[in-house]
Amino acid sequence: MKYFAMHPEQIVQSLQTDMEKGLDEKEAKRRLKQFGYNELQEREKPSHVLLFFSQFKDFMVIVLLIATLISGLLGEWIDGIAIIAIVFINGILGFFQEYKAEKSLDALKSYTAPVVSVLRNSNWMKIPAKEIVPGDIMKFSAGDRIGADVRLIEANSLEIEESALTGESLPSSKDVNPVYDSNAGLGDLSNMAFMGSLVTRGSGKGIVVGTGMKTAVGKIADLLQTTPMVMTPLQRRLEQLGKILITAALLLTFVVVFAGIIQGRDMYTMFLSGVSLAVAAIPEGLPAIVTIALSLGVQRMIKKNAIVKKLPAVETLGCATVICSDKTGTMTQNKMTVTKLYTNEKMFTVTGEGYNPIGSFFFNNRKIDPINDEHIKKMLQIGMLCNHAQIVRKKGKFILDGDPTEGALIVAAMKAGLSKERLLKDYRVIQEFPFDSRRKMMTMIIENDRKERWAITKGAPDVLMKLSTTVLLNGRRERMTSRTEKKLKLEVEKMAEEALRTIAIAYKRINGYGPFDQSAVEKDLIFLGFYGMIDPPRKEVKEAIEKCKRAGIKTVMITGDHMTTARAIGTQLGIYGKQSQTIDGGQLEKMTVEELEEVVERVSIFARVSPEHKLKIVQALQNKGHIVAMTGDGVNDAPAIKAADIGISMGITGTEVAKEASALVLLDDNFKTIKDAIEEGRNIYENIRKFIRYLLASNVGEILVMLFAILLALPLPLVPVQILWVNLVTDGLPAIALGLDKPEENVMLRKPRHPKEGVFARGLGWKIISRGFLIGLVTLLAFIFVYKQYPNNLPYAQTVAFATLVLAQLIHVFDCRSEQSIFSRNPFENLYLVGAVLSSIILMLVVIYIPTFQPIFHTVPILLKDWLLILGMACIPTFLLAGSFYIRKT
Ligand code: ATP
């Protein structure tokens, strides 16, 4: 169907919809059933069976399986079956770990699914893009991604970037006129907006004519597939490390086997022990556990309203040294209420709270009727008309639909008894130059029944003053002299000092027929006055800023608002003090990045900035070696968000473009959530360090006990199945539980981590080697001690060695929870860990004491008296080093 050649009315008829009311919900549901979800078909994923079998593709595991097969053929079938069973269980665990890791990553993607505005049952509502159906009436504005193929019925300075489809990188301007050229390419269809393309300017409305695979992108599918989750730097480093560890493990195993064979030991036993040791020592589970720790951490962040879109950000969060944050809505509540109004050289106050349109106007503490004052009335009318927000009444409550700044103006006008519907009966909007945070203003052109036209403008007072040549005083236009301007500025300044956000109103009559040119309209204006509105700081932000400070992270406010307002809020929040410097947009504009670098570290407020300036700030800070977190919500914020080390966007007020560019989305737009995410980011990293430490120290212990025994010409302290059991049970559950550990109290008291910091930094390498060495040593000592007592009962000594190794590791796991020592944390804080350790102990006792398992695991029941020895030995590695920590500390 060539919708682009049809008139909107024809489309309405052919798609059975209604431009005023939209579809009704029932019909929308029916269509959803008929046409299916508005989604592109996903690429096929590898099947679960493949994922399962991939667990066994590891070289050493294959060697082990072959070795086991041989042992089975040689008659050692109990060993063979036991080993195969353990390898199989290990495979199942690995499968579930990877499966869970993948699932939680998928879940993340759905959290950030885009939403769109559609008209249903006469109400504009936000729905997930996948629920759009043909016939829906949809609206969008700068920063939105178009959710389906749409035939436009309204376009206000609408520009759309559709390079993915047309290859044209510049945005194309759109209109609503039918295109009759039947050979027109996608790039020529100026009345269509296509799924996946991006609104870069203005706003528009249209009828959905195609969804899902029936859209232009659907036809070339695959194009818009969600980007794959990239590996985090740590994951990449661990992958490299994994290779080194495998080589080291193989080498040591080779030494063990070789030395054993030279000593004349049974070749076959040595071979099987060697391969089992290699399987146990190679930390094949590490990548999956890292992914699980990352994704579990990410789930915890979701609970705190932070959504990580790019996994590497989890790590970078922990390195952040500066947070550059927007003021409005992030540090403040974005619940605007007009409390002051200045016009005709008089300051009025307005009472009332929130969006409840009940309140009065006062002049010099005397109540007045604002409608009787021509100046105030005009200001309120323009404020209400040059506006997209609506105040709707739902269940007795007044709710804002739209921008809070605009909502506050509507509420102020409603308090005076004005109604937008009534105003719109008298005036028709015929053109609009939308709000743009660069221009800091917006203009609408309205006409009345007599075809008289006006430009009505609202925007930042300093901007409008510059564009106004006259000012309305006592109903007459007076020239805007430098004296009047000075006086006005002083009044604006007074409002700003009270932390009020200011917004001015100007207008002018215009002649002629449209469309009008923006630069011709937005000049020679008549300045009318300005509003002051409060936007209180969010209560929790001050404390969050303080916590960041203690964690070595500086907070910088970046705002489009007036400098004085920004300073007043900055002072309340503890960002701005005597030592702080401020820079405004004008100064920034003139500075080069190099010049900014000189001062940037001392600046705590950037005011009246445009989104473009943010990029400069990010670059200057990064050149100074900072790791920068930068927030943003609009289209123009995207470059800075992308360039920042951690780009952050707003879940509520953010545009789709900003969200896509960002690595972290704040569901509640709240600054505190950034702090929480940083804290969680630091914690996740620490948890990963914890289980790397645990796993590797355990592996070192396992290898060394075998190596020492061989070197001392002793019998082997562990049999292959025991080694594999340790690898499965002791190394498995507790490691995952460490990934769930709570943060240490001091995570937010430390300086940020250096992003290039190696995996083994801050003494981790030493801890792994020293603990691993001691675990190996005590296991060997316990073995020797018991073997000397019962030289004819090797299995008994081996069982004691097995129990010592298991217990030493299970005690050591609690030590890994802290960078300091085992005593600095309450072991019962992490109940998962306690559970994992208890189940490992029970499984160990089962293997030792239940007769069915004894022949399989070559175990013998241990006498009670020997448990004392085992326990004593198992405590040594952890307690010895904890002791040395305290001696060093005192
Ligand atoms: P932040 O960057 O902290 O979110 P901000 O929201 O104040 O700051 P902008 O939205 O760019 O930054 O607003 C800058 C200025 O533009 C405001 O101080 C106000 O005077 C003016 N302004 C804001 N919203 C509108 C609007 N909808 N229409 C006209 N002018 C506006």
Automatic annotation (TrEMBL):
SUPFAM superfamilies: Calcium ATPase, transduction domain A, Calcium ATPase, transmembrane domain M, HAD-like, Metal cation-transporting ATPase, ATP-binding domain N. One of its GO terms (cellular component) is plasma membrane. Pfam families: Cation_ATPase, Cation_ATPase_C, Cation_ATPase_N, E1-E2_ATPase. The keyword NAD does not apply. It is found in: Cell membrane. Residues 2-76 form the Cation-transporting P-type ATPase N-terminal domain. Signal peptide: none annotated. It catalyses: Ca(2+)(in) + ATP + H2O = Ca(2+)(out) + ADP + phosphate + H(+). The keyword Metal-binding does not apply. The chain crosses the membrane at residues 49-71, 77-96, 244-262, 268-294, 691-716, 722-740, 768-787, 793-811, 831-852, 867-887. GO terms for molecular function: ATP binding; ATP hydrolysis activity; P-type calcium transporter activity. Keywords: ATP-binding, Cell membrane, Ion transport, Magnesium, Membrane, Nucleotide-binding, Phosphoprotein, Translocase, Transmembrane, Transmembrane helix, Transport. It is a multi-pass membrane protein. NCBIfam families: ATPase-IIA1_Ca, ATPase_P-type. Belongs to the cation transport ATPase (P-type) (TC 3.A.3) family. Type IIA subfamily. This is Calcium-translocating P-type ATPase, SERCA-type. It comes from Fervidibacillus halotolerans.
